[in-house]
Amino acid sequence: MNTLGKRALIKMIGLSAVSMAVLTACGKKEEAPAAPAAAPAAAAPAADKLKVGFMYVSPIGDGGWTFQHELGRKAIQEKFGDKIETSMVESVPESADAERVMRDMIGQGNKLVFATSFGYQDFVQKVAADSQGVKFEHATGYKTADNAAVYDTKTFEGAYLAGIVAGAMTKTKTVGVVASVPIPEVVRNINSFVLGAQSVDPSIKAKVVWVNEWFAPPKESEAANSLINGGVDVMYQNTNSPAVLKTAEERGARAFGKDGDMS
Ligand code: GUN
Question: Which residues form the domain of 80?
Answer without folding.
Answer: 50-151
